[in-house]
Each structure stands twice: as structure tokens, then as C-alpha cells.
């Protein structure tokens, strides 16, 4: 039997990996897991590069999380060496009702703990509190940070501080601790429909914040801006600044946008301001 050169195998799988979330490419990659050890290793890298626990798409979110937990750990019987090392982008999307069960919180915390160690870690992390209608002026919408449970909070903070994590996206979470970004290495941050708590829920001494290259947000109320500019080095090196459309009036937020623009004005290369249409 003639075997294909590894270089050719890699090229085939890279092209399939570009369409991994679309059939028949996804099916082909899953089939490659059964071909050989060489095919299996490369296939896992593409199949598990971007993983999502999505409560909107899969209402039985506990079963989805349990299935991922079963294959993610390094000693997993289901996947041999565990798939955590292949995951580069990880997303959790759930609504307030789905976030209540204690068992799910523990499962998600275990998954977060397994996504980083001394030899590997993810590049991008997304936490999305699902809500059909976000309230004006960013009222209590989505999910409360404290409502996610202390064990989930601790695991999330630890993953945020992973040296390999570069991009963090948070949507629909309110009362986020103001120290969440301290001690991280992120250079890209996306914030939508969030608020910060006025108390330091994490406690302890403050760790230094990183220097952001990219900030994307539709949350420009004083509660948000005051926290972001509290440490000037956090926002003074932003090269790409994007203000997305929100529900607040443009006039009310102009001065808050100006504060961020002024802080990063000397190095900013790209500025985008999107204004929501007032037409029903």
C-alpha cells in the first residue's frame, strides 16, 4: 500500500479545515480520524480549533458540555491524548436560566481549567450571556457575573491570565469585577452590553494590566469608560478602536468616546464609529 507524504496529507487537511463547519468538509475531516495516526492527529487540529458551547443552538447545554469534558482532558479514554491542546478559540453562550444549575457551572469550570497548562493554551475566549432584548443604557441584562458561581469565576479568571490568551470577548454579562483584566496578556478586547461592578469582587492587590492593541465596544457609558481609563497604559497604545452601534443616544456618548480617542490618539491607526439607525 502506497502512503501519502505527510506534506501532502497536511495540505489536504488544511484545505478541508477552511470549511470545517460546513459539510461535506466536516464529515471528511471526521472520517480522516479513522484513516491513520498521521491523518487523525492533523484532523483533530482542524476539527477542534474552534469549539463552542452554545445554549441557543443546543438547549441541552449540559449534555454538550459533558461530552466535551469527556474528550478534553489529557487522560481522556475517548480521545487518547485529549483535544484541549488543539483548541485555539473557545466560546460559551448561555442564557440566565441555563446558567443556574450547579452541575453545569462545575462542568464549565472543569473545561476552562483544562484549556491551558504549561505547554498549551487557547488564543481567544468568548463569554456570551444570551438575551433577546438588551435594555437601554445597559441595564441588568444577560447574566450576572456573580450568578455564574465562584468556581466558574475562578476558572474564568485563571484562563484569562493564561500567557497564551490574546483576545477576550464578553457580551451580556453585568457586574463584571473591575480587576478582571489585571494580570492578563490580552491585546484585543471586545465588550458588548456589559457593566462593571463598583466593588472589587476578586479582592487582593492589583496586578498590572496589559497594553491593548484592539478595543471593540458598544458600551460607552461612564461605568465602562471609567474602568477602562483607570489605568492609562491599558488604553493608551490602542491602534484599532471600534465603537459599535448600541442603544444609547449618540449625543450622550460622544464625550465618552472622545475620552478613549484622546487616550490613544497618538498611536491610533484605525477608528470606526457605527451609529445605530433610529428608523423603526
Report on the architecture of this protein.
This is F-box domain-containing protein. The structure is a single chain. The protein has 9 helices and 10 strands. With 280 residues, it is α/β, with parallel strands linked by helices. It has 2 domains: 1-48; 50-246 and 256-279, no CATH class. The strands form 2 sheets. Strands 1-2-3-5-7-8-9-10 form an 8-stranded parallel sheet. A two-stranded parallel ribbon has the order 4-6. Helix 4 (61-72) links the parallel strand 1 and strand 2. Helix 1 runs parallel beside helix 3 (37-47) and helix 2 (25-32) crosses helix 3 (37-47). The longest helix has 15 residues, at 250-264. It is globular. Residues 134-140 have low confidence and may be disordered.
- Main β-sheet description: 8 strands, parallel
- Tell me, what's the shape? globular
Task: Indicate the percent of residues in helices.
Answer: 25-40%
List the helices and strands in order: HHHEHEHEEHEEEEHHEHE
Protein name: F-box domain-containing protein
Amino acid at each position: 500500500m502506497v502512503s501519502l507524504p505527510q506534506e501532502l496529507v497536511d495540505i489536504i487537511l488544511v484545505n478541508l479545515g477552511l470549511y470545517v463547519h460546513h459539510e461535506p468538509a466536516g464529515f471528511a475531516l471526521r472520517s480522516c480520524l479513522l484513516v491513520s495516526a498521521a491523518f487523525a492527529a492533523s484532523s483533530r487540529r482542524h476539527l477542534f480549533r474552534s469549539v463552542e458551547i452554545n445554549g441557543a443552538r443546543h438547549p441541552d447545554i449540559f449534555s454538550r458540555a459533558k461530552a466535551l469534558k469527556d474528550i478534553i482532558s489529557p487522560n481522556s479514554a475517548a480521545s487518547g491524548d485529549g483535544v484541549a491542546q488543539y483548541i485555539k478559540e473557545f466560546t460559551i453562550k448561555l442564557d440566565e436560566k441555563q446558567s443556574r444549575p450547579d452541575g453545569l457551572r462545575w462542568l464549565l469550570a472543569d473545561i476552562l481549567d483544562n484549556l491551558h497548562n504549561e505547554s498549551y493554551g487557547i488564543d481567544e475566549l468568548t463569554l456570551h450571556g444570551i438575551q433577546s432584548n438588551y435594555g437601554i443604557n445597559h441595564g441588568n441584562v444577560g447574566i450576572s457575573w456573580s450568578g455564574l458561581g465562584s468556581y466558574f469565576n475562578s476558572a474564568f479568571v485563571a484562563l484569562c491570565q493564561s500567557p497564551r490568551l490574546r483576545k477576550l470577548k464578553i457580551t451580556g454579562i453585568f457586574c463584571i469585577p473591575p480587576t478582571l483584566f489585571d494580570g492578563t496578556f490580552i491585546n484585543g478586547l471586545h465588550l458588548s452590553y456589559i457593566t462593571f461592578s463598583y466593588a472589587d469582587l476578586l479582592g487582593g492587590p492589583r496586578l498590572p494590566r496589559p497594553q491593548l492593541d484592539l478595543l471593540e465596544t458598544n458600551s460607552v457609558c461612564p461605568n465602562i469608560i471609567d474602568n477602562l481609563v483607570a489605568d492609562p497604559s491599558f488604553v493608551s497604545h490602542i491602534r484599532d478602536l471600534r465603537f459599535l452601534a448600541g442603544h444609547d443616544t449618540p449625543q450622550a456618548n460622544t464625550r465618552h468616546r472622545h475620552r478613549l480617542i484622546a487616550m490613544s490618539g497618538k498611536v491610533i491607526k484605525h477608528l470606526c464609529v457605527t451609529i445605530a439607525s433610529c428608523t423603526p
